[in-house]
């Protein structure tokens, strides 16, 4: 299976995963590319999700995205006029290379030269010298330029690219008003040089676009040359412009946007990860992960404790107080100082490995958890956690082997079945997930998240009535807990029962108001509900910002604010939120996702800056006009 870039055991895996909830509505209401800036909110359009691979919070992946219309770009006028299908194909093959006589030239076809059947006549025959050209009228000079362009086209069709360049160059020199086509055709020649001259192609496309800023062929040529030069950010800008100008009908351009964004984001993410300092994720995220394990007593201090024993004891006190930064510091210090008991050592490496996993250091987490198991091979929680690490690393076989080893050590440990059920849930094997959840409930009926996940798995199977009944039972069984109301609210929201869902989110907020750390996800869920229900962007933004006041690193609130900004055409504001999302990203996959959104938004901002008169077209497309 594909690598899982999430935390499988996290309880917030309910209802498709809360950590991707911010994107879900927008994914399901997307257009072919970024169109939020020119769109009224009521149009229901929004943000094109270029990559749907990001997963977070232990959830199954969100819905897949569709990138572009299946309608291809219309053929040039000269091809349309040909009645015979065979003649049409024949003419298209010839005329695609150059521009002129109503045909459109290539993007960047690299055509291997073939020996000409006969010598090419002198392309400059009849062209006056400099003095003669100077004496010509403006109209005659422009006519001569067109003649030279036509001769260049013939040379191009014979694959004599260097002589064709000479013709186009002369056409530019003699013309009082050079045509953009002259530069564009010369650019097409440069990419057929051996080796190709992509920089010269870009330069000529710049000139062509100075003369005609909506010259799509020049935009495409420049975009492709920029991509070949690894200038992907600029390539995304040009391919995005092509896609919008052509009303999203060019599948190749839409695919190129996605391709260049993917390369750009991967490269930038690699550079960022190589230099940035490690950082803990939000308290909401950490507490959700830790809550997925049933509490067990901290190691008892030996009769004559070493300093490391005392420091480890303080680390667990900090953990209980949700002081996660000090927990990490103290766990490191305890290991460095030396712990006197085998049990304490295994616990210390388990604790440090847990936090390495939370910051996205899967390799480091694996090393610490393996050390924990080397010291205490029967430590079930370390087996369960290393299974999560193996899933994050894409090694499902090892993960399931870890679960089996955990069961051999203690078949009565309810955590094993809950977490293995989470893995099955992620894989979409809901029957197996439910079987494991039921086994976990049989062993321990008091753990709330197993009940929640079982109900969610039923919902995912289409057993809506059973799932709803299960949630009502959970609400009765755990009347003082806010989590069931939040998860039940998500199920109601998925069914577009907006009023009821909002009531549930409000109930969750009320019940958990004194919880530390506070669970801010109901705030974000309520924001999404109000946006979907009433298109109340102001209320949605206020709720997300309230969530950030409580938990400044809540990535789902940041992601939601970014997309709400796009809906209002506040693209510069959206870019800032996407930048913040990248800063909060825990894994490389999450960082790539954030960078992708940021630069897709930047490309849209560049388009609207360069083509402000097209904003209306975006709105029309979004509304299906």
TrEMBL record:
It is a single-pass membrane protein. Residues 109-121 have a biased composition (Basic and acidic residues). GO terms for cellular component: mitochondrial outer membrane. It is found in: Mitochondrion outer membrane. Residues 85-95 have a biased composition (Basic residues). GO terms for biological process: protein import into mitochondrial matrix; protein insertion into mitochondrial inner membrane. TPR repeats lie at residues 380-413, 414-447, 482-515. One of its GO terms (molecular function) is mitochondrion targeting sequence binding. SUPFAM superfamilies: TPR-like. Residues 57-84 have a biased composition (Low complexity). InterPro entries: TPR-like_helical_dom_sf, TPR_rpt. Keywords: Membrane, Mitochondrion, Mitochondrion outer membrane, Repeat, TPR repeat, Transmembrane, Transmembrane helix. Residues 57-124 are annotated as: Disordered. SMART domains: TPR. Belongs to the Tom70 family. This is ADP/ATP carrier receptor. It comes from Cutaneotrichosporon cavernicola.
